[in-house]
Amino acid sequence: MKHLFTLCTMMLLTIINSNAQDLFANQRNAWLQKAEEAKPALHETIVHPQSIVRAVADKNAYQGWRFEKQDEIEKLYTTNFKELKTVTVDFGKHLTGYFSFHTRILTNCEDAPVRLKFTFAETPAELNTPFDPWKGSLSRAWMQDETITLTRLNETVSIPRRIAFRYLKIELLGSSAYYDFAIDNLTFRAVSSAGDVKTNLQPQCPPIVQDIHRVAIETLRECMQTVYEDGPKRDQRLWVGDLYLEALANRYSFQNFQLTKRCLYLFAGLSDENGVVIANIFEHPEPHPQKGQLCLTYSMLFNSTLLEYLKDTNDYETAHDLWCVARRQMEYALNYVNKDYLFDPNQYVSNWFFLDWRDGLDAHTPMQGAILFALSQSYELAQMLGKEKEVSEWPRIANRMKKAARRHLYDKQQKVFVSGANRQVSVLSQAWMIIGEVTTEKEGREAIQQVLTNEQSVMPGTPYGTHYLIEAMVRCGMHQEARSYLTEYWGGMVKKGADTFWEAYDPKNDFISPYGFFPVNSACHAWSCTPVYFIHKYPETFQR
Ligand code: RAM
Q1: Does one domain contain both 297 and 442?
Q2: Which residues contact 135 (CB under 8 A, 6 or more apart)?
Q3: What is the CATH number of the domain that holds 320?
Q4: Measured in angstroms, how far is the CA atom of residue 124 from the centroid of ligand 1?
Q5: 330 and 379 fall within a common domain
Q6: Are residues 198 and 320 in the same domain?
Q7: Domain termination site, one of 192, 222, 256
Q8: Are residues 188 and 212 in the same domain?
Q9: Which of 32, 291, 431, 513 has the fewest CB atoms lying closer than 10 Å?
Q10: Which residue puts its alpha carbon closest to atom 5 of ligand 1?
Q11: Is the CB of 527 under 6 A from ligand 1?
Q12: Ligand 1 mean position to 354 CA, how many Å?
């Protein structure tokens, strides 16, 4: 009897323990269920190519290549493909979805299979740069080239994988001397959950701003699928940092708040056993996180996304449901603040402090600002939900962190914030100190002006980092500067031919790539769509 009692107690303890090991064990399933219920339907549009194009190597074109029109598309549909051998077609805009084509025997009878290669690309240079030998640090398989062998013609054939592209090259790899055939009816079923744009620009809005806005809207539309993806070509998944910026842009465009709700519930349901939101998740075959992918900047942005979602929708039910996750992210982040109230990467378990893909960027000072921003956003959320008492120590911690930042990170002589042991001067250190409310407006302006005029400053290498620079400029009253920077940076991409905004962009280096090989960059990237947010949120700055 005593034995049985001990055994039962032990079993009970094991159950309690295994639950104790998973902080949100009791809520996960319900959260994932809510995510499923908020899954949007995809709108479909059928699109056909506009014309046959010819590639032109041109030093003045972005990444050295552009296309010009060569023929009407009918030429492809009616000519023996053995004569054409290689054809490139332009679908006229960036599309995400599914491709099919048809073949037609023109003479004699089919006595052998046909082998064709299809290469889809988002940009002209991507289609004109050999992929092999592969030099990229990410999978070669992201590149969208497919070889297909047809053992039967006169049929419609679909390529199973989802494609994101504008240009398509078709090459003949093998055919018979004894019959001719044509390729016709190139058809693309484009998909997006975005729907219609619900907002307008003011009529007097300058043309360059209108162009930037249009391209940013297209970027967001393409990334809005059954989650907010980061890029429909690559990585085709949901990242918190991208979600936050997409949700901001969505507020001023498609206003598809159910999608934001779905993503918040996915991140909550798939948080790790300590309740920490994992940086990215996949939907298939069923929603799951990229295990172990902890990124402190991103887990904190869960809170900002929830706050903005609540402001957009007044959906207090969801916000209350997910408050415990938000509180947990902040508690977790504070493990990286040391006794001197400074961000310390070695303070806790190893983590990723992603702020931008610029090589060599020092994270210390920007992270101090990012944690401060998270504290302020999370406290605002707590106030809206009547939970301030639970987190009453946050404002005090924030004050100490601001003082510590001013004392240890500010270089009074240079009038800039420096970062790390080598006292690096970067744009993002200033931006995050401003966003973290460490500076006065005047100090913020001085610091930004300093770094932008100093050739040695470490610049952001992506529109992600640049977003936070613009945000900082607006916050410290640099409206005209924000407007010029935004129109030059994003407008620079428009002038170089972007029809969706790129993942990485450095006006001084067209070949910048976080992955060692520019064709694997995503040329339609979620985090680059935020001009939509700035242009609508500050119409007096950007639309006049
Ligand atoms: C890349 C993607 C994604 C981003 C992460 C940090 O893999 O570009 O958008 O959020 O990096």
Answers
A1: yes
A2: 516, 517
A3: 1.50.10.10
A4: 23
A5: yes
A6: yes
A7: 192
A8: no
A9: 291
A10: 239
A11: yes
A12: 9
Each residue's pLDDT, cut to its tens digit, for the chain (544 residues) gives 444 444 444 444 444 444 459 999 999 999 999 999 999 999 999 999 999 999 999 999 999 999 999 999 999 999 999 999 999 999 999 999 999 999 999 999 999 999 999 999 999 999 999 999 999 999 999 999 999 999 999 999 999 999 999 999 999 999 999 999 999 999 999 999 999 999 999 999 999 999 999 999 999 999 999 999 999 999 999 999 999 999 999 999 999 999 999 999 999 999 999 999 999 999 999 999 999 999 999 999 999 999 999 999 999 999 999 999 999 999 999 999 999 999 999 988 889 999 999 999 999 999 999 999 999 999 999 999 999 999 999 999 999 999 999 999 999 999 999 999 999 999 999 999 999 999 999 999 999 999 999 999 999 999 999 999 999 999 999 999 999 999 999 999 999 999 999 999 999 999 999 999 999 999 999 999 999 999 999 999 999 9
| 48/153 same-domain check | yes
Q: Are residue 142 and residue 267 in the same domain, yes or no?
A: no
Looking at the structure, do residues 50 and 37 belong to the same domain, yes or no?
no
Q: Which tokens belong to 449?
A: 């002006």
Q: Is 503 in the pocket of ligand 1 (CB under 6 A)?
A: yes
Counting atoms of ligand 1 from 1, which one is nearest the CA of 230? Answer: 9
Which atom from ligand 1 is nearest to the alpha carbon of 525? 9
452-484: b (≥16 Cβ within 10 Å) or e: beeeebbbbbbbbbbbbbbbbbbbbebeebbbe
Residue 481 CB–ligand 1 contact under 6 Å: no
| Residues paired with 68 in a beta bridge | 54
Q: How close is the Cα of 332 to the center of ligand 1, in Å? A: 22
Q: 239 has which bridge partners?
A: 280
Sheet holding 280-282, edge to edge: 238-239, 280-282, 288-289
Question: Among the atoms of ligand 1, which is closest to the Cα of residue 526?
Answer: 9
Q: Which domain holds residue 486?
A: 2-41+194-542
CATH of residue 70: 2.60.120.260
Ligand 1 atom nearest residue 240's Cα: 10
The total domain count for the chain is: 2
User: Same domain for 29 and 66?
Assistant: no
Structure tokens at 4: 């049985």
Local structure of 370: helix, strand or coil: helix
- Whose Cα sits closest to atom 1 in ligand 1? 235
- Tell which of 192, 223, 248 closes a domain: 192
Token readout for 287 is 């929603």
